[in-house]
Fold each of these.
Amino acid sequence: MKIKSNVIKQLRKERLWSQEQLASASGLGLRTIQRLEKSGNASYESIRAIAAVFEVEAQSLFYKDAEFTGYKHRQVGYTILIVFFLIVSFLFTIVGLAIDSVNLDDDILLIAIGISALPVVVATILFSTMTIDVSQDSIIWHFSFGFWKKTLALSEIESATCVKNSVLNGFGIRMLGSGWLYNVSGLHAVHIELKSGSCIRLGSDQPKYLLSAIEHAIDQKE
C-alpha cells in the first residue's frame, strides 16, 4: 500500500521521536520504519500499528487508489547508441589505418581497437537507458543499473514545465546554467525550478506525462 510518508514523518517529529523510538513504540522493526518513510510502501498491518501509536485513523495514513497514481518509465538512449556506433566505427577505421601503415598483425589490431573502444563501451552501457520514478514524496532518476541515482523531494520544487533542449546541450550529465541536465536521447525534457534557485532538467520521451505525474504528486501533498 502507498502510505503518506510525509504525514508519518511529521507526526513522528511533532513528538520529537527518532525512527528507533517509533519502531519501539509501534512494535515494528527499524528497517520497516526506514522503508516506509523512504519509499512510502507498507502493509496494512504496519499502518494500523503506526496509527495506533499516533492515535489517528489508519485510513488517514495511506492513499486510496484514486488518490495517487505513481509514474515510472525507462527511456532507451537511442541517441547514445547511435553515437556509440559512429565512434566505434571511426576507431576501427583510424586504428586500422595506423596499424596497416606499420605492418602489424591482426591480433595487435584487435587489442588496439579493444583498448581504444573500452571507455566508449562503458559509457554507452551506463547511459543507454534512464529511468524516472515519481512517487508521492519524491522524484528518483538513474541511468542503467542504477548508475548515478538521484532523489529530489517534491517539497523542494518551485515549478516545473515542459521544454525543448538545444542540440548543444548534449547528452548524459551536463551542467546547465544554475543546475544539471540528465538526458539519454531526444530533445524534450521537463525543466524543474527549485526553491533554492537552482534547476534540474530531466530528458524524457514522455515529457507531458512526466510533468502531469509531478504536478499530480505535488497536488496530493498540498
Amino acid sequence: MSTEVKIPQLPESVSDATIVSWHKQPGDEVKRDEILVDIETDKVVLEVPAPEDGVMGEIIEQEGAIVTAGQVIAHLEKAGKGGKGGGKKKAAKDNGDKDTAKAAKQPDTVGAGRDATDAGDDDPALSPAVRRLVNEHGLDPAEIEGTGKGGRLLKEDVLKYLETLEAEAAQAPAPAAPPPTTKAAPAPASAPPPAPSTGPSGARPEKRVPMTRLRARIAERLVEAQQNAAMLTTFNEVNMKPVMDLRAQYKDRFEKRHGVRLGFMSFFVKAATEALKRFPEVNASIDGKDIVYHGYFDIGIAVSAPRGLVVPILRDTDTLTMSDVERTINDFGKKAEAGSLGMEDLTGGTFTISNGGVFGSLLSTPIINPPQSAILGMHRIQERPMAENGQVVIRPMMYLALSYDHRIVDGREAVQFLVTIKDMLEDPARLLLEV
C-alpha cells in the first residue's frame, strides 16, 4: 500500500508552482518530515516533506513540471523489514526474478552524485543556495562535511571546501616544461597572415536558460509599475555625519546590550515611519477608483538574494525599537541567502526602502513596488565638499531618491516627505523626540 505525496496548499494569489529538484529517487529510504522535493512559486521556494517513513516509489511529476495545490506528484511505499534498504531487497527476494529485474532498474544514485549507500538517515536536504553552488562546481555533497544542525550542509561549508580545493591546486607542482626544439625554418615570404581570432579558439559561446518563476514575476511587476502608475522621482541629499558620529559613539554598547550590530537601516526605517505619519498619502494605495489609507506602517526592505530581488516586510514599524529593526533585517538577510523566506515574510507592505548603496550606486531612480505609492532609494555615502556657514567643509553625503505615484501623491507632499527624512537624519535627536 502506498501513500500519495501531494503539493501542499499554495499561498494566497499563487495558482501553481514549478518542481525545482527532487532530493530522493525511487528506491531511496526516507524518514517522516525529510525533504523530498523543492517547488518554486513566483514568490518563494517551498519544501515538501515526507508524510511518513517509507521507501520512495514512483515519481509522477519530474523536475520542471507545473503543478497545482493538492496534485499528486509521487508515491511513498511502505518500508520493508531488514534495516536500511531492506524494503527493496526483501521485495526482490520474495517476488522472484520478475521483481528482481524491476528492482535492478532503480537508479543507483541519490541527489547530485551521491552513492545510494551514502544516502539515508544522515543525508540532509540541500537548500537552494547550497544546491546551486554544488551544481555550478560539479561537487559531490557526500565529500563535504556539513556543520549545520544534524549534519546539514550549509553554504559556508561549500565555500570553505572550494577554498580548500583552490589552495591544493595552487600548491600542486607545475607541469614540466616541454623539451627544447630545433629552431623552425622561416616561413616563405608568400605565406598568408593568420586569420584574426575572437578568442583562444575563435568561439563565441552563448548560454540560454529559462527565467525562474521569481525572475519572471519580478519582470512582470516592474513593467506593471511603469505602465500603470504615474511615476515620478524627486531627489535630495543628506549629511550622514550626525548619524555616523552617533553610531560610532554607541555601536559597541548597542551590540553588547542587544546582541546585534547598529547599522544605518534602523535610522532610515524610523525616519521613514515618522514621515509616513505626517504624510499619510505616501502610506496609501489605489484600489480601482478608491484611495486606501493604511493606519499601520509595514515597510518592505529590498534584499538581494541568490534567486533575485525579494522584499520582506517589517511589520508595525511604529512599535519597533531600533534593535528590533536591526535584528529583523539581519534575520531576513539570512533567510534570503538560504532561500527560506516564507509567504508571511513577503506579503503586504505599505512602503519600501531600497539600499543600492551597498553595491556602490551613487544615484538611481527606484521603481515603485505596486500597489504601494512610493519607494525610498538609499545610495552610497561619499565625501564631498559642502558649503557650511560660508566655509567649504568635507562631509559624508548620501543622495536620497523618492519615486512616487503622482496619481495619489502631489509633488509638494513628495518633496516635504523627503525633506522630513533628511532633517531627522541630520539631527537624530528628532527621531527620539518625534519633532
